[in-house]
Amino acid sequence: QAFFCLLLCIPWGSSCPRSCQCTERAGAKAVLCSSRHLEEIPKDIPRDAVFLKLDANSITRIPSNAFRHLSHLEEIDLSRNAIEKIDRAAFKGVAAGLRTLDLSSNHIRSIPKEALLALNAKLRLANNPWHCECALQEVLWEARLDPDSVQDITCHTAPQEEYVGKPLLQVLDAGVNFCSVRQRTMDVAMFIAMFGWFAMVIVYVICYVRHNREDACRHGDYLKSLPGTQAHA
């Protein structure tokens, strides 16, 4: 009984990752993992963590459910990493209470809008090699961006060369709509597909009529070759 009581009393959720430092900040747990040469997000972050600093590491990806067990998180700092890929469910489980998410100064070119639009957190997305497209435009329109860093969201690549190197907000203010460009492209693709289907139907009808005509001619020749038919003639 004493053994089981001891197990229940151990604060399993309060252990600290070996490569990090855990402190108290205003009565809330802060997990500091800055500049620790991490290549992935630690899996043993305490469940009661409120502030999580993972900046200045070598993290390349945020996988699905990376923070799912950390329902108390309010701030996540992932700036100055090498992040290239963010999964759609990367921040699942922390959407409700998260107040700040810093993804600035990474290698992010695109991001699934589903990963961010469910968040109420203030986002920092500056200084990434963004590919300006419809998904990024929707994030800019619908997500809660940090106003101090929004001007640093710059088009590293874009559908048209004239937008490269310009702040995305400036491009959108000029009347550019990347989503309408995608819609036009989809419309053209749909038109081509419908035209191809229609052409196949026409070819099929022509072949069907020609085949029936040939069968009718052969049947007529056969009837003419019968003896009774020749006598009647």
TrEMBL record:
UniProt keyword annotation of ATP-binding present: no
Primary localization class, coarse: membrane
Keywords assigned by UniProt, alphabetized: Leucine-rich repeat, Membrane, Repeat, Signal, Transmembrane, Transmembrane helix
Signal peptide (UniProt feature, chain positions): 1-22
Protein name: Leucine-rich repeat-containing protein 3
Record PROSITE patterns: LRR (PS51450)
Gene Ontology cellular component terms for the protein in this record: plasma membrane
Segments forming domain LRRNT: 15-51
Entry's localization field: Membrane
Membrane-topology annotation of the record: Single-pass membrane protein
Transmembrane segments: 188-209
SMART domains per record: LRR_TYP, LRRNT
Primary gene name: Lrrc3
